[in-house]
Amino acid sequence: MCVDEKATIILGVPSVMQGIRQELHTSPLKYKALKGSLNRICCGGRFVPKKKKKKSYAPPKEMIQWFHDTWGIELIQGWGMTEVNPLGTVGRRYARRDDLTSDGENENQDKAGLLLPSLSAKILNSDDMTTEVPWDGIARGELLIRIDNKNSCLKIKKKIKKKIVAIGGPWVTKEYFDMDATEKFVDDWLITGDVASFTSRAQLVIRDRSKDMIKSGGEWISSKDMENLVMSMSAVDKACVIGVPHPKWDERPIVVAQLKPKHKLEYNEVIEWLSKSYAKFQLPDDLLIWDEIPLGSTGKMDKKTVRKILTEQKYVLPSLRNNHESKL
Fold it and tell me: For residue 317, what pLDDT is reported?
């Protein structure tokens, strides 16, 4: 379609762009018409290399450079979310007038970019939420973004938790349609869940995100909402939904359930139940029945321990088990 329509710019998450790269690499003659036509790719999201356990929260630098050197395509990285309508930063190849070397240009594309006009930001120490950390590309903390200077970002220090981002402004979402989402807001700020750094050149680098949200194929899936629905099933006492790494989709959700005494539950029953509220791509890939789901000191489900147990058990998603077993 890109060839037929003579596309000049396309958009997608890193996993999609990795697939496009593979196709271009495999059949360069088939797509030779794209050279000189397609010159920009807008890309943001999380990419998980197939052969690495370490997670990367941006398009890999090597892929960015490959598109430029091989096809003359600038991969433009950015940060944002639907609730901010939707962009907060954009990373272009030329960020400053003094970008004279190819190394500098590649470094620009390796960041989430510069803030859009009218946005201001601070990175605050996660421990006290009062100390601003230096913009050196290394120090990290809570990212706060706003449009004007009327509201002090320090007002949220007692309410905001570690490893989250708060954002506010006239074009930022104030509420969600037909749902109570008060936990997503603090005063006039929208909490996004990102931890970040700024370089000395004011370029944003996203370091981490809230562990409870699951990102699959570039789309967010709320683990909390899914847990509530699963726990509304008559057989379920407790339910924990977490994201498990996937080489193509970044993560896939699975359900860990603790059943009520003398009850049984099958995976197909969970899928049928959730299908009333979720799209097919959002449905969990697996159901695990545990005698007891670990709880933290506050009585909440301890997802960190759940993940640790799955790691120790060397858990593999059902769709990946054949490949996993063949490598053993």
Answer: 96
